[in-house]
Design goal:
The complex is a heterodimer of chains A (about 80) and B (about 200). With about 80 residues, chain A is α+β, with helices and mostly antiparallel strands. Helices cover about 25% and strands about 35% of the residues of chain A. Helix content of chain B is about 50%, strand content about 15%. Chain B is built from nine helices and five strands. In chain B, strands 4-3-2-1-5 form a five-stranded parallel sheet, with helices on both faces. In chain B, helix 4 runs parallel beside helix 7. Chain B starts with a helix and ends with a strand. The chains are: A alpha+beta (about 80), B alpha/beta (about 200).
Amino acid sequence: MSETFDITETLDVRGASCPMPVVKTKSAVDGLSEGAILEVVATDPGSVSDIDGWAAGTDGVDLLDQVEDGDEFTHYIQKTS
Amino acid sequence: MSTDTSTNTSDGDAEAMTEAELRERVEELEDSVARLESDADDGQKKMTIVATKGTFDMAYPPLILASTAAAFGWDVVVFHTFWGLDILHEERSKNLQLSAVGNPSMPMPNALAALPGMDRMATRMMEKKIDDNGTATVEELIDVSLDQGVELQACQMTIDLMDYDEDDFYDDVVTGVGAATALQHMAESDVQLLV
């Protein structure tokens, strides 16, 4: 891990493929309060581009980091509003 | 260039329009600019998909795009018509078939693909691949789409044509809609797709 974040909640979407990582991330973010950080652990290589695109096109979320570690892709998303 | 703008229109335009008329015209223009800005700036993107196919493979694109667009916060309508209606049919949606005939992506010649039971076999193979890959089932995609606020519409004319009953569909599927409703959503949408 390149950086440590104060993680509020972890979402495990390992094994799931498009569109589930994005769809479940969105649902999880909806349940968080402002400032909270969601950690999303995925195995879908497409989740790197998809979660990046989703965060860029969605108000109130900030993609802090994406970390690739072997077969796992971990995304850190902060709810900003 | 023109530093003296206050006087050079005074002779021509001011004669044609009084100051009151000009003020009125400016107000009208301000109103229409405000209207355009509010239309363009509400930030709410809309998408309408028309789903016309009822094969196993063609059930996926509209549902994947719809659920993903909803995750972006878009307002999404999927209008299901003709064979596309089977995707929303609770019983039939669990039994959608892949056609092996006339499908150049299938690793078998048409003469073989036309044999009885081949569609079923091709479907089972695809279902296994989907499961192995962690791709969601059609039912799961319908559930998440509805959860995320996608409006799944079943064309009333096709319901009658196919002798389906409104109760045959998943809960929260909207019935009693037709082409005019679909067109209205399409006209208001940023993205319109026919699948």
